[in-house]
Amino acid sequence: MITKDLYERKELRQLVRDFTHKEIVPHLDQWERDGEVPRELHKKAAELDLLGIGFEHGDLIDSVVLTEEIIQSGGSSGLMAALFTLGIAIPHIWQSGNEDLKERFARPAIRGEKIGSLAVTEPGAGSDVANIRTKAVRDGDFYVVSGEKTFITSGCRADFVTTAVRTGEPGYKGISLLVIEDGFTRRKLDKMGWHCSDTAELHFDDVRVPAKNLVGEENQGFAQIMRQFQVERITMAVEAYATAQRALDLTVNWTRNRETFGRPLIRNQVVSHRLAGMAQRIDLARTYVREVAARVNRGEDCVTEVCFAKNAAVEACSEVVDAAVQLHGGMGYMRESEVERHYRDARILGIGGGASEVMTELAARRLGFA
């Protein structure tokens, strides 16, 4: 399914909405308790070509549509992280043009047969990608990898991990990407939110990785990572305003049906005005993020605008989910309330893909302010 015009994207929205209502919403609470989504869900999504969007067909705008509809139809940003980890695991492989790697890793992930993960963050580096320490030393037809990664999405379930390693000199010039399949240990991490998305700490102790698993050229990994960060950050911005919209929708419904002092809660001016303010923040963020996404999709250089988009959407989401819990009252604090999940899940959006402070610093540098 190649979606290019408005009609096709409308059809995509309906397809994703139906998939979410049928395959996700009835089971999401259980997956939150399980700490992961089943592999079968990946296969069901693949049967509808949803995992291939942005790779075998479709583009970034189609991915925006997909993200909006899953969350606004009752999914969550945590569900997106679990089901669509291939969105950060295989882009570097896909763009490298290496048909062997695409056939062994990318296409099986698109078919829902394998789960991929991306390992960049380290305990001592965080957002400072240029200073990663995990080493990969060439030994004949292999690289010997030693080091550790942390906060790795889908790291427990991953069949392969696209891993940032140091193959050269200190700094950004000495980083490469290797696809590592096995030989390392994993430790599952407990988190505040995104409970249905497993997260792991990975340890590499002289792991031998075939040299043919090198993605692109040696010591060119930093540039590969930076290019993909733009798409990842737009995706997280979409998750933010979509989460906010879902929280608003739930809150409007709650306040219409909840009576206090003999009338619906929404009839109180302080409530209706707060809802209006929430809607305003969401609409402003959504409009800007969509425009920046269109520019990224056209291949324009808009790193500064991507930083603005992510921060603006995250700030809007943070304010809206907080207000949603408040307006739900005591029920908003209960685990059985959907807004409680969105409140927890939203907190990572200002950290993942580059913390808000990092986004601000990067924008300042690009603008010549720092």
From TrEMBL:
Keywords: FAD, Flavoprotein, Oxidoreductase. It comes from the Bacteria. Its cofactor is FAD. Pfam families: Acyl-CoA_dh_1, Acyl-CoA_dh_M, Acyl-CoA_dh_N. Residues 219-367 form the Acyl-CoA dehydrogenase/oxidase C-terminal domain. Residues 118-207 form the Acyl-CoA oxidase/dehydrogenase middle domain. The keyword Transmembrane helix does not apply. Coiled coil: none annotated. Residues 8-113 form the Acyl-CoA dehydrogenase/oxidase N-terminal domain. PROSITE patterns: ACYL_COA_DH_2. Gene3D superfamilies: Acyl-CoA dehydrogenase/oxidase, N-terminal domain, Butyryl-CoA Dehydrogenase, subunit A, domain 2, Butyryl-CoA Dehydrogenase, subunit A, domain 3. Belongs to the acyl-CoA dehydrogenase family. This is Acyl-CoA dehydrogenase. It comes from Lentzea flava. The gene is acd.
